[in-house]
Amino acid sequence: MGHETSKMELSQHATLQNYACSPMSAVSSVSYNVAWTEWSKTPILVGSFYPYNERSWATFLSETLPSDLMDDFAAAWNVSRSKLIERLDRNYRVNPISFTDVMLDLFDYSSYSGPVCWPKAHLGSLVTGYHSTLGSLANLVVPEQSLYGTWSVKTFPGAPKTEFRDGETYCISPRDPYYNEVGAAITHEMCQWTSFKTWKAERNMQDADDIFMSYSHPFIKAFARSFKKAYSCSAIQGCLPWVFRGEAWVPPDMWRMQEKVVQLFRMRSHFCIMLGIGEPPDGFITLNTYSKVR
Questions:
Q1: Phi, psi (rounded to 5 degrees) for 78
Q2: Which residue, 109, 120, 156, 165, has most beta carbons within 10 Å?
């Protein structure tokens, strides 16, 4: 797709102090096996010993993910640890197919006590970028190696993209602890995306999804979903034809959109991406990237 992955350099890493890391408990220590049945489209967990009782994936997460991680996500969602596990179980049962791949990723990763990392800074605001409690955990818990070589952390391969809330407004400012890494990820990926200026909009939309939705931070995902064939104003009070703080601006096309985002990061501006209907926040430049209905 014309996107060359850059070689890993020591300077290419996430802002390490924003994350906590700890190894998962080995799945062997909790005696689980993955099984498939003839009538199920998703895997089930069963005990390793007779009577081979089925166990929930939420129980698996609570017993293998670091205890501090579970406590942090419970606090981020303002619920107790037990209520968090109930939510995770309910989310999985409502939509098991969406979460199958990431659960298998975590199961395999836990087989050798792989270390996972999760955001410590502003976790309470980051989780709101996802539709469900399990969706936030699946996209914000990352393998430790993703902290290095990609500027900002990337999810496990099976993390469900559909869990991202792609009708909201996402803002970032230089005071945000993730500002530098998010800006670096977007800027450097655009530099490596050599075919962007020559491919048509449809191809670029797919490539943008492949490149940027693999990142964990909701703002980078919002950028991924800002690549549209055409844009229209969705700000309740209307939009301006120029960029101005406290007002919404509609890019003429995706090429100007990405150019403006990179420029705003370079200028260390306070700015937002508005994907749905709403009002631009005061004090922020807002790029209104709502899809134009043809």
A1: 60, 45
A2: 156
Q: 53 with 129, same domain?
A: yes
CA-wise closest residue to 182 among 230, 129, 233: 129
Q: Which positions ≥6 away from 59 have C-beta within 8 Å?
A: 45, 85, 89
User: CB-based contacts of 219: which residues, under 8 Å, 6+ apart?
Assistant: 170, 172, 178, 182, 273
Helix (H, G, I), strand (E, B) or coil at 248: strand
Q: Tokens 């005696």 sit at which residue?
A: 31
Q: CB of 38 within 8 A of CB of 52? A: no
How does pLDDT run across 259-290, given as a tens digit for each residue? 999 999 999 999 999 999 999 999 999 999 99
Helix ranges (H only) for the chain are 57-64, 67-76, 81-94, 96-110, 123-126, 133-140, 179-192, 201-212, 218-224, 254-266
Interatomic CA distance for residues 89 and 86, integer angstroms: 5
**Residue 153 CA neighbour count, 13 Å, CB half:** 26
Measuring CA to CA, how many Å separate 152 from each of 67, 218, 242?
A: 24, 11, 30
List C-alpha distances in Å: 16 to 68, 136, 276: 17, 20, 32
Contact by Cβ (8 Å): 261, 186 = yes
Counting Cα atoms < 13 Å in the Cβ hemisphere of 198 gives 6
In a domain, 6, yes or no: no
Classified as helix, coil or strand, 46 is: strand
Chain segment 177-235, per-residue pLDDT in tens? 999 999 999 999 999 898 787 778 888 999 999 999 999 999 999 999 999 999 999 99
Q: Judge if 96 and 131 occupy the same domain.
A: yes
Last residue of a domain, one of 163, 192, 225: 163
Q: Show the domain range for 176.
A: 169-288
Q: How far apart are CA 184 and CA 251, in angstroms?
A: 22
